[in-house]
Amino acid sequence: MTNYKKLSTLTCVMVVQQLEPEHWQGWNSKIIDDARNNSIEPLIKEIIKKIEEEDCIVSEAYGIKHDKDEISVWDTQTKTYISNTKTTHIHLLIKFEKGATLENLASYIGLESQYLEKAKSGRYGYDNLLAYLIHAKDRDKYPYSPEEVITVRGENYLTIYNQKKESWTKGRATKEASEANLSVDYLISEILEGNISKNEILLTDDYYKTYALNQRKIDDAFSVYTEKKGLKTINALENGEFKKTILFITGDSGAGKTVFSKLLISKIKQLAKEKNERWEHCMTASTNPFDEYNGQEILFMDDVRGDSLTASDWLKLLDPYTVSPISARYRNKVGSAKIIIISSIKDSNSFFYDSKNNVNEDINQFIRRLDILVNINDVYHLSFPVKEKKTTQPFSDSVEKEKYIYTFSNELMIDKNNAVRTILETFINNMKWR
């Protein structure tokens, strides 16, 4: 015996269709064109007439023209998503005293059934459709004014809006929280792939809400990604794929050390982008410099103090061929930066002399780790560490008659642009990006 599924009679329906004549079967194109260019009220009244001619009774009817909705589309030229305005369309919400099936209603109106939407089950189904007319619960959509809604049957929409505004606002918060929980898996996936930074999450409204509701999960994802990135950096260093670039920038207060460093960071990020790599930077505080470090490729230690780290930690951090965990004070964070920029009002020798627990540490161990010393005053002075041979004093008890020392020489005095170019050339050579 064949079973026939009984189609349900709807108590309400939302009609959504572009205001283009080709989508309206059996309609006079002038009515559709007038609705697109002028008021939609005549179109709504005509739809009600068609429905009620088929023994239906309409108790409420509210319509609005959406002409400011946007959609994101992929631009093949710029390789980015761009926003385009959607084609002008109508949203018409109809409530029935006596209704019909969705398929029959579509036939009465002259539309395909896919352009008629049933209310979701539950006590708020119709209420949600009322709110959607103006996107009252959708922060990410264009907010239409309740005054734009045309009331043809039932209580005036503006009156309904004023009655429900508070509950709709609460409903929006509930919806955003629900969507935030749904999107956390997507965010975690993007974090683990290195496609999104914490700054981007905190500065993006939708992602920020997701983070607020799932902070521990997301922070754990960043910790895992940081550990992975550190291990990859270690492997790359051990395989000789690159060496770290270490810059020390000195100058008086107000000389422009920070501005110059930020310019370098911007240029370095652009170079990485050209290599299809996505680099981030961390700008540390003068004290407790690694509290905010999470494995970024560029570490900018702005106006840091020499005594903010021990001598041992400085030597580990600045070793161009090794990535080592730094002290337990910073939870053994791995210094996996590929370029480190230090700025200070002190010269490099005085700076490292002040490092904690520095008991007769050979200053040469610090100097030889630097790629370039930049001194900013009226011009840019660039110096490079040079290895020199020093003979021990005669009659010394030391078996070693000679040892090497490192000094800065070959100083260049150049303008900002040439200073940037010279530093970037050193960086590119160290990264083996030729």
Automatic annotation (TrEMBL):
Alphabetical list of InterPro entries matching this protein: Helicase_SF3_ssDNA/RNA_vir, P-loop_NTPase, Sigma_54_int_dom_ATP-bd_1
Classification via Pfam families: RNA_helicase
Protein name as annotated: AAA family ATPase
Swiss-Prot/TrEMBL GO biological process terms: DNA replication
GO MF, one example: DNA binding
Signal peptide: none
Cellular component aspect of the GO annotation: extrachromosomal circular DNA
Matches recorded under Gene3D superfamilies: 3.40.1310.30, P-loop containing nucleotide triphosphate hydrolases (3.40.50.300)
Lineage, top ranks: Bacteria, Bacillati, Bacillota, Bacilli, Lactobacillales
